[in-house]
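Reopening this one. Same input as before:
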Amino acid sequence: MSRLDEALSHAAGSEEPYVDTLPPVTTSPAAKPRAKRSLGLLAAVVVMGGGILTLVFTSFEDSAIYSKGVDELLAERDKLTHRSVRVEGTLVKGSLVKRESPCEYRFQVQKKGATLPVSFAQCVVPDTFRDVPGMDVEVTAEGKLGEDGHFTASHIMAKCPSKYEMNDRQARGEQSPHGTLTGEASAVAAPGGH
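Same output, byte for byte:
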């Protein structure tokens, strides 16, 4: 039997308490101030990190842009007045009016029965932003809702249907907001013979 086996069998068979023969661990007097400095540094880093996160989250709250449908915007009018909002809806037929001096577009957008008057004080709008009979034009306006319920837009976007979607719409009798695509579609289809 080896010495390790003897020690194990002796330890297993004896009922004597185990006595640790290693000397007790002591800390030097210099170790206590070092631990206090490390703890102080950790506390300072945690406080600074919390301050930075608070600053970041509160600044983002003011600059956040909400994206709502017309119906949702009007339902949350009290909360969203004077905040940057992106509102989505369908252009109300016959509501698009342009004033030349000073240049401004006024129109209405609607969604789920709610209607919102919008003004856009710029001369240039997207090509797809047209009031075309027989076709719905999806509009997204970014700006702020006033207390009077009027939306002042700083940016306007109009959904441009894809060429394939527009061909399907034209087959159903709708018109394109920026010209016809049938000539393009037939030119594309002609070389392949399909």
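So the earlier flakiness isn't reproducible anymore. For the record, The radius of gyration is 36 Å.
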